[in-house]
Design brief:
The complex is a heterotrimer. Chain B has helices spanning 2-30, 71-75, 109-113, 139-145; strands at 53-54, 81-86, 93-100, 120-121, 136-137. Chain B is α+β, with helices and mostly antiparallel strands. Chain B has a three-stranded antiparallel β-sheet with strand order 2-3-5. Chain B has a two-stranded antiparallel ribbon with strand order 1-4. Chain B is elongated and about 95 Å long. Chain B starts with a helix and ends in a 19-residue tail after the last helix. Chain C is built from five helices and eight strands. Classes of the chains: A alpha+beta, B alpha+beta, C alpha/beta. The complex binds iron/sulfur cluster (SF4) (2 copies).
């Protein structure tokens, strides 16, 4: 006797602990197999693009912190400030550019640590979560001493940074990097050989190189599929062209490859921090820009490599005190779209592993 | 037959991974603890910490240093500072200096633009209350809140000057 | 992109406007005008000196009205858009296999749909701008060329009301499905979304009117 089966629609979210935010996944299931996944987004939409049209160029810096991806606040500020600086032709002093590189990379490590910890907890590895947050706390302390904020910094300014590094901070940061690198090896030892972890990630959620490009994936997701793309190498901004680092690439395109890429990225970031701290030149930290600056008429598209991928801002100015139109190209948005392809054919238990592996932040998706 | 071999191999691998993991965990147990029991213990905040805002009293004059220039009100991205003043010239006095702390995003722009460093960050961050109305900080609150020793001064215009 | 490639592109599509070149020409014209004005002023100064009169006031250059493009930017007609995109994607010289984003700008009298294309292999990128009239904001969808365009086009539809013809599933993505208006338009006026409550209660009434309770819904008949 043949069993009669039918498709089942399952709602995961919008408030599900594994979705890392308010995301709703409408999963179509055939038994335990996933036929289709439709992410439903917009629960965190704050229309930051519209808000930016109503605030001056100067005020917008603090808006990018929380309106975009809150885990990489400094990298959001970076892309915004770069866009305005390129539009208005403002030079940034050398020292500020080095400081920005150090801060960006610290932010990248902090973001990857949150990802590794929460993903570990998704897969049942509680220890990694606690360890990652222990190290992240140290980065937050480092941030607090420089910027005054732990999550939302408002530290970069158009034309430089707000304040110089405090005395002794560079050495402290250096010590942190020395402490941090062996810790990455520990996460590696804890997870990479773990058979349960391997069974849940290796070969799971594969996206091919072609699909990844066509669907607009970027960052670690694309690099895990064999696309050796990194804006820091491709179109170096700030002083990344003077830094020596490798772009980790894996070809499998599965969850495990994405994990390997991010782990290696943390090591590379630490390497960049070391170089930048060593090369830190003395001098000015900020070009004075009038508080009510006006950008000349025009438009510019600036891309940077954030912890999630290709973060860009398309800035249009009509010559006024506020931007005329801001378009944020959010990496999580495109990576989440690629999820629809990754999920096909996997079991419902893999949803959590795959979703965690692409590392989305919902405030970046919805903006 | 080879099924049994593979099971044995898998068990061996599992045990090895377990040994590595547990070994690490044991070693980590011997390291000093980093957990802070928050409400009982507290961490010191740094000099630049963006805490609550305050208007410190200048010990020399017994008044705050605000010269009523409205710069902070204008620059605030959340538009949460409200200033009113009466009088002319030297006699100008503040009649109202309210900060809606529930709207404030602790960006520090007001601290940055203030020409006299009249408005500063205080090292307090525990502002939660049961009533939103309590988060409207008036001039008195701001005076009381201000630290004796202002923390976030002197870092803005650092070029050339010493900073802390 | 190298000038040769741009020339090749323009040769293939003669109707495409090279906006960056137009900007340079306009800038040159403005510079020219400014130089002429300065010469005139110089002459006036010398004349005044010769006649012993006070010198005329120095000139102040007014703000430039030129619209600056940073990078290769092209204006494309919407009829031609699909051909241009397909050519750019499939021509190995250009190889634009990556679509960064699709969005639009509201210029009050018209919309401009913006496409940012990139070639990961050749490391160049290009911005295409498609002007569309405000009362008829339609453009062909590029989802057939880049799958990733799907959500970006839905977003542009949601926030600016651009209709992408041929899109497989054009509905709102960020705002709720019942939202009125397109928030990123310049003439959008925010009103308290009280009507959303009415929509919700209306829907509840509809469900109640069917006479089904929760047990009855989704039963396996
Ligand atoms: S910290 Fe920022 S948001 Fe708060 S009152 Fe000052 S300017 Fe306004
Ligand atoms: S900027 Fe400073 S001096 Fe001016 S009104 Fe504000 S607090 Fe007073």
């Amino acid at each position: 006797m043949a069993l009669r089966t039918e498709e089942l629609m399952l709602n995961m979210g919008p408030q599900h602990p594994s979705t890392h935010g308010v995301l709703r996944l409408v999963v179509t299931l055939d038994g335990e197999n996933i036929i289709e996944v439709q992410p439903d987004i917009g629960y965190l939409h704050s229309s930051v693009e519209k808000m930016m049209e109503h605030r001056t160029y100067f005020q917008n810096v603090s808006l990018t912190d929380r309106g975009m991806d809150y885990l990489i606040a400094l990298q959001n500020e970076e892309v915004y400030c770069l866009a305005v600086e390129r539009l208005a032709g403002i030079e940034v002093p050398e020292r500020a550019r080095y400081i920005r590189v150090v801060m960006n990379e610290l932010q990248r490590i902090a973001s990857h640590l949150v990802w590794l910890g929460t993903w570990g907890i998704d897969l049942g590895a509680t220890t990694v979560f606690l360890w990652c947050f222990r190290e992240r706390e140290m980065i937050m302390d480092l941030f607090e001493q420089v910027t005054g904020g732990r999550l939302h910094h408002a530290y970069y300014r158009i034309g430089g940074v707000y304040a110089d590094l405090p005395e002794g901070w560079a050495e402290q940061c250096q010590r942190f990097v020395d402490y941090f690198l062996p810790r990455v090896d520990e996460y590696d030892a804890l997870l990479t050989a773990n058979p349960i972890f391997l069974a849940r990630t290796r070969g799971v959620g594969v996206i091919s190189r072609r699909d990844a490009i066509a669907m607009g994936a970027s960052g670690p997701v694309a690099r895990a599929s064999g696309i050796a793309l990194d804006v820091r190498k491709e179109e170096p901004y700030e002083v990344y062209d003077r830094m020596q680092f490798d772009v980790p690439v894996q070809s499998e395109g599965d969850c495990f490859a994405r994990y390997r890429v991010r782990l290696e990225e943390m090591r590379q970031s630490a390497r960049i921090i070391r170089q930048a701290l060593r090369g830190l030149p003395p001098g000015e930290i900020r070009t004075r820009v009038p508080m009510t600056m006006k950008a000349p008429r025009g438009e510019v598209y600036v891309r940077t490599e954030s912890a999630r991928g290709d973060l860009g801002i398309f800035l249009v100015s009509d010559g006024g005190e506020t931007p005329y139109r801001v378009k944020i190209r959010a990496p999580s948005f495109s990576n989440l779209y690629a999820l629809t392809e990754m999920m096909k054919g996997w079991k419902v238990a893999d949803v959590i592993a795959i979703l965690g592996s692409i590392d989305i932040v919902l405030s970046d998706v919805d903006r | 037959m080879d099924r049994r071999v593979s099971i044995a191999a898998r068990v061996a691998r599992g045990l090895e991974a377990l040994a590595i993991g547990l070994g690490l965990t044991w070693r980590a147990m011997l390291r000093p603890k980093v957990t802070v029991q928050y409400p009982v213990e507290k961490k010191n905040v740094s000099h630049r910490f963006h805490g609550l805002l305050g208007l410190p009293i200048d010990p020399e004059t017994g008044k705050d240093r605000c010269i009523i220039c409205f710069q902070c009100e204008r620059v605030c991205p959340s538009r949460c500072i409200h200033i009113e003043a009466t009088g002319k010239g030297k006699e100008r006095v503040l009649t109202r200096f309210d900060i809606e702390m529930d709207k404030c995003q602790y960006c520090g722009f007001c601290v940055e633009v203030c020409p006299t460093e009249a408005i500063v960050f205080a090292p307090h961050y525990e502002a939660s209350t049961y009533n939103r109305a309590n988060l409207l900080y008036t001039l008195d609150d701001l005076h009381k809140l201000a630290p004796k020793e202002p923390i976030a001064t002197g870092i803005v215009r650092t070029n050339g000057r010493k900073h802390r | 992109m190298s000038p040769e490639r741009i020339a090749q592109f323009l040769e293939r599509f003669p109707r495409v406007r090279d906006l960056a070149a137009e900007q340079r020409a306009e800038q040159a014209r403005e510079d020219e005008e400014w130089a002429a004005k300065q010469r005139e002023w110089q002459e006036a100064v010398e004349r005044a000196k010769a006649e012993g009169k006070p010198a005329p006031r120095p000139l102040k250059r007014e703000e430039s009205r030129v619209y600056h493009y940073h990078g290769p930017t092209f204006g494309v007609e919407r009829e031609e858009l699909l051909d241009v995109c397909r050519w750019l994607r499939d021509n190995p010289e250009f190889d634009m296999s990556y679509l960064s984003f699709v969005s639009a700008i509201d210029w009050r009298d018209r919309f401009e749909v913006v496409y940012h294309l990139r070639s990961p292999a050749r490391r160049h990128s290009v911005v295409l701008k498609v002007p569309v009239p405000r009362d008829d904001p339609r453009v062909p969808s590029v989802t057939g060329l880049w799958r990733g365009a799907e959500w970006h086009e839905r977003e542009a539809y949601d926030l600016l009301g651009i209709v992408f013809e041929g899109h497989p599933d054009l509905r709102r993505i960020l705002m709720s499905a019942d939202w009125k208006g397109h928030p990123l338009r310049k003439d959008y006026v925010y009103e308290d979304p009280q009507w959303l409550v009415e929509v919700a209660s209306q829907r509840q009434r509809e469900i109640a009117a069917t006479g089904e309770d929760w047990e009855g819904r989704g039963s396996r008949s």
